[in-house]
Amino acid sequence: MTPREQARQILKDNCHGTYTIPAKDLYPFQWNWDSCFCALGWGTFDEVRAWQEFDTLFSGQWKNGMLPHIIFHKESETYFPNADIWNSQTNPPTSGISQPPVASTLVKFLYERCKDKSEAKKRLHTLLPKLFLYHSWYHTHRCENGLITTYHPWETGRDNSAEWDEALFRVPLKLKGGFERRDTALIEETERPTGKEYDHYVALLQILKSHDYDGQTLHNTIPFKIADIGINSILLRADKDLLWLYQQTGDTKYSDQIKNRISSLENAFDLLWSSECENYGSYDLRTNTIIPVETAASFLPFYAGAVSDDKAEKMLKKLHSWEKQVKFMLPSLDPFHHKFEPKRYWKGPIWPIINFLVATGLKEHGYTDHANRIQEDTRKLIEQEGFREYFNPLNGLGLGGSNFSWAAATYLFWL
Ligand code: GLC
């Protein structure tokens, strides 16, 4: 089988009717941003199935607009924390937090590629109000100092990124009851978050649950309150693409509102610049300080279209030094950082979907050499090692889960 055929097969094997699970056993439900990437993969050979992926994802949307990070369409014993732990009291059951809002942008990419434009237009009509509501939730329930906030590392999609360590370990460990992780029964411990990190993740989940996951009341009390450079860049880009999508249908009723949201987020972006690092980073809204840790997400402002020329110059210098330090791009953590661990999840390994987002932004800014290096490295890694969850940037070895849906999808639509 060619890699392309294998990739299609992986999507089919991980397909549960109208949604795709990220990987068998390790992630047996529908995940928010994984699903959006999967939809693009499906779109390369089955457009109807691609639109279904989004429809099924939005079947889990909450009344307040929040699009949960996990939708538990079925039960499974291989994952912790499951639907009972989250206890969302929704139908279908879901988690109580969201994930990076790539949806509008990936709907746009799918729409542009679709051959059947009349079907695509129909689908767009159904999806647009839901996308608008999702963005509204971020801009109202999760907005502070003009920036978008997050209340849990899982919401950033970069679970154990070194950026979160300080804020995460401030979360008091008043755990109600014990718990048993399932991930380390499936994947080597050295490739996963630590036990200490998990204790704090669960403690934070329990705080969120005790407030019914409601943004308004959590605002003052939640110990972990961060403006993630990833979410902020991804939403800024998504706002612009949502505006574009509305324009395709000729519907202008929200244009001004969306434009206002875009400029207010753009105006706040300077808070995310670290002059110490000479790069973008995440901002701790509890201590009102920028977190001086550079990660792959520090380069997402290119994707947001939010980088001025003088900042771009500094960021490219950084990228260049990283390129010399690792064999494959783009490591998830600054390879010069003392916490860099090439095998441990988001503390060093390469993630194909982040590579796609960053390279897309670099290419759009005309930095094609850097973009091509990232793209070609991603292709080499997948072709050599298979459709793995993440990869070691120093030796290229595949890590984490295998037959991973978004790696397969990324290969299909990008590589
Ligand atoms: C991990 C990743 C997250 C992803 C999920 C399912 O939790 O950190 O980004 O969505 O796995 O693949």
Task: Give the tags.
mainly alpha; 6% strand; 415 residues; binds alpha-D-glucopyranose; 18 helices; three-stranded antiparallel beta sheet; two-stranded antiparallel sheet
Let me know the number of strands.
13
On the 0-100 scale, what is the average pLDDT? Answer: 97
Identify every distinct bound molecule in the structure, by name, code or SMILES: alpha-D-glucopyranose
C-alpha Rg (nearest Å): 20 Å
- Gross geometry: globular
Termini separation: 16 Å
Taken as a percent bin, the fraction of beta residues is: 5-15%
Q: Percent helix among the residues?
A: 40-55%
Class by alpha and beta content: mainly alpha
Q: Tell me the number of helical segments per DSSP (H or I, 4 or more residues long).
A: 18
List the strand order in the largest sheet: 7-10-11
Largest sheet: 3 strands, antiparallel
Which spans of ≥5 residues are poorly predicted at pLDDT below 50?
A: none
